[in-house]
């Protein structure tokens, strides 16, 4: 399951991209590509455990 | 390697780390992510004096990719535009299992070199890139099988010790080629005394590459040049040219470090010289990837 705060956008945070990129609606900014793997729970990653932004937003 | 190597004018190998696996265009729009962008960036860096390109792969939206097929597209784009460059694939992959991290080693031809992270590295607040000894050994064995020269990435002095441990476990190809990494977090604190201690601690005969993160890129590259080492620059490690000013391209960072080398009187290695320095047993004229086993991915 992906993080509920994850959205894919081509605009936001004062930036614009040709291809939609991972955007965090909790932090209100585009996330680093490495963090996007956490947002998507890829590989061994889990947003509930590995992301401090998610943990803070849920507190 | 030492100040004597500088005095003797031994060529310094310049590596460009073009893309990386952490940040992307959200940090600097000049970071190349597609195969076309990475190929063009490699050619521009070759023009500027680079002999090694350190490569990561990305999806179309900039996210990390590890699949052999994506590395193949990128490595083909690089070899097409700059055929004599030494191609170095990353095997780093925070949170990715070993099977995924083996994928970049399976291109055809195999990469000339590949990175080998020598131990743990903290990421964000709750994550560590583990790089256990079992992982290091497994990646090393696949590199050995495919004729790939390992570039040992030493995040801190504990990983210098791990290099000695690896030498106990494996018959590392001569010379040991190690990148000393300086910066924040788990990395060696970027101070000159730590740089000197690190180079003195390396195994006899090892060659070192110097990598300073962010604002430490240029000062540590300069120290590397003065103390007979090789240097790595690029947007993977530093997105700024000066404080508050984003770098325009990887080539811009390469041009600056090459100018420093020229000012200091340190020759910059051609790809042919770099091949001879990193793999003295192999023919310097050997085309990239020659003799490697064909593996379809
Ligand atoms: S950065 Fe964290 S909180 Fe934001 S979308 Fe990704 S996992 Fe969720």
Describe the structure.
The complex is a heterodimer of chains A (59) and B (297). Chain A has 59 residues and is of the alpha+beta class. Chain A is 31% helix and 32% strand. A 3-stranded antiparallel beta sheet of chain A has the order 1-2-3. In chain A, strand 1 (6-12) and strand 2 form a beta hairpin. Chain B has a single domain, classed as Aldolase class I (TIM Barrel, Alpha-Beta Barrel), CATH 3.20.20. In chain B, the strands form 4 sheets. In chain B, strands 1-2-5-6-9-10-11-12 form an 8-stranded parallel β-barrel, surrounded by 8 helices. A two-stranded antiparallel sheet of chain B has the order 3-4. In chain B, helix 2 runs parallel beside helix 3 and helix 8 packs parallel to helix 9 (250-264). Chain B is globular, with a radius of gyration of 17 Å. The termini of chain B are far apart. Mean pLDDT of chain B is 93; it is low at 283-297. The chains are: A alpha+beta (59), B alpha/beta (297). Chain A binds chain B through residues 8, 13, 15, 17, 19-22, 29-38, 42-45, 49-52, 55, and chain B through 21-27, 58, 60-64, 93-97, 100, 123-127.
Give a brief outline of the structure.
The complex is a heterodimer of chains A (59) and B (297). Chain A is α+β, with helices and mostly antiparallel strands.
The greatest interface here is: A-B, 27 and 24 residues
Give the number of domains of chain A: 1
Q: CATH homologous superfamily of chain B, by name?
A: Aldolase class I
The best one-word shape of chain A is globular
How many strands appear in the DSSP assignment of chain A? 3
Mean pLDDT of chain A: 96
Number of strands of chain B: 14
The CATH class of chain B is: Alpha Beta
Which ligands occur here? iron/sulfur cluster
Strand order of the largest sheet of chain B: 1-2-5-6-9-10-11-12
Portion in beta strands of chain A? 25-35%
| Most strands sheet of chain B | 8 strands, parallel, barrel
Oligomer: heterodimer
